[in-house]
Hints:
Blueprint: H1 2-14, E1 19-23, H2 28-41, H3 47-66, E2 74-78, E3 104-107, E4 110-111, H4 114-140, H5 144-151, H6 171-195, H7 203-226, H8 228-233, H9 236-255, E5 260-261, E6 274-277, H10 282-289
Amino acid sequence: MTTQLSVEQVEQSHRAPVEIEVPASTAWPLVLALGFTLMFAGLLTSASVSALGVVLVVAGCVGWFREVFPHEHEEAVPVVLEEHRVTTERRLVERVPVATDLVRAWLPLETYPVSAGIKGGLAGGAAMAVMACAYGLLKAGSIWYPINLLAATVYAESLKLGPAQLNSFHADSFAIALALHGIGSLLVGLLYGAMLPMFARRPIVLGGLIAPVLWSGLLYSTMQLLNPLLASRINWIWFMASQMAFGVVAGVVVVRQQRVSTRENLPFIVRAGIEAPGIIPQREVKENRS
């Protein structure tokens, strides 16, 4: 008797259910979303629109919670059984060959130290500053012209400078421009130090040409918001030349630094790369076996 009941239970467990219960359909999330939309739209139109939005938000929250508490609203959905048969006309089964005795390795195996990114950022920043000052001498006859324009990014007083004052030295504008340029150069230099090991082929092309062009395109679309004064006076050809000078010099300095081996098991190490088999030499494989 016990055996017969157990067999019946196993057969019933393997049978697919005729119906399944799923959460019932509800429109309260749409009401809640419409309420939030009207509530914020009223900030630009009228207070009555915001009031209507608040009412819809409250109604949407209450209605949505009532779909779950105190009991979940569910509905039964019939299950349609489909029999799938896998057929093939092939007479032979092809199997993917699996390489044996291969140990997983990390790529890249070597990376640059943090000091390489710092040196590259400082060197690239100096090259970019030389290009910007050369543009100032040719454009306005003063090296302080691009410095005052850069300071206008965060310094409101620089926006009040007239054409003649833009060519003169201002200690506050110089300090702000120096801080902005130095911080930006260091951050981009650290990015180069972490990114260039991932591109084994032609890293200078990436750092000196591709990245500056992409960066210049991004700034071209946002410069009017970041620095209106610089956007009205900038020469984009010189700007891109300065960016390329930074990228080439920073890339050359970074790639000339001595690489260090990555350590997989050390804590506090940020590793960038992918896993790949077959990179570790055979000698190390034998040592790991022993």
